[in-house]
Design a protein that fits this description.
alpha+beta; Alpha-Beta Plaits; 2 domains; 5-stranded mixed β-sheet; two-stranded antiparallel sheet; 6 helices; 7 strands; flat
Length: 194
């Protein structure tokens, strides 16, 4: 009988040890999953959301706007002269400008806004519950902040600028349609600046 009790105690200790190992493995898997989700939805260079997250968020905003009558501005930003900076100073210099622009956007947006690096030198923003005048003021403010941003790379002074275009979610809009309209508005803003 004493031998059975010793075996039961040993077997309980093994179960507890196995439970601890399983808990550690589950914790490690949860951490790995969180890291994969971070990579799946965020841009490594800027720390901003990526195109995939932006599109998912835009789909959600479209549904909400169409269902409840909310409004959402879709902004596209294109960094000025990034190719020339990369060609003249190297891609490290371009990365400095992209990271600086991302930092400015993070500081000057609300927690409810979505900011994403769409790809290359293009960024997107989703701004809820602003009218056209407020969006225009926001764009002017951001462009002013970019102009004041001093960046340097390997002793070279880098000038930050961007063209920004926008549109609003409408009753029949789709993700592709909105992204095309915002992109076209951004190119019109770029042409105006020239």
């Amino acid at each position: 009988m004493a031998n059975n009790m010793h075996q039961n105690a040993t077997s309980s200790e093994q179960v507890c040890a196995n439970c601890n190992v399983l808990e550690q493995q589950i914790s490690a898997l949860k951490n790995d999953l969180a890291q994969m989700e971070q990579y799946a939805y965020h841009d490594v260079l800027t720390g901003l959301s990526n195109r995939r997250f932006f599109v998912d968020s835009l789909e959600s905003r479209i549904s909400r706007c169409q269902r409840y009558g909310d409004n959402c501005a879709v902004l596209f930003l294109d960094v000025d002269n990034l190719k020339a900076v990369n060609d003249q100073h190297g891609h490290g210099a371009g990365d400095v400008l992209l990271a600086r622009l991302a930092d400015i956007l993070k500081v000057h947006t609300r927690a409810s806004d979505v900011i994403a690096r769409i790809g290359g030198d293009e960024f997107g923003m989703l701004l809820d519950n602003l009218d056209a005048d407020q969006v225009v003021r926001k764009i002017a403010f951001l462009i002013d902040q970019f102009g004041k941003a001093n960046s340097s790379y390997a002793g070279a002074s880098l000038r930050l600028g961007a063209a920004i275009g926008y549109c609003f979610v409408g009753p029949k809009d789709t993700v592709d349609g909105l992204m095309s309209r915002a992109d076209a508005a951004m190119y019109r803003a770029k042409d105006k600046a020239l």
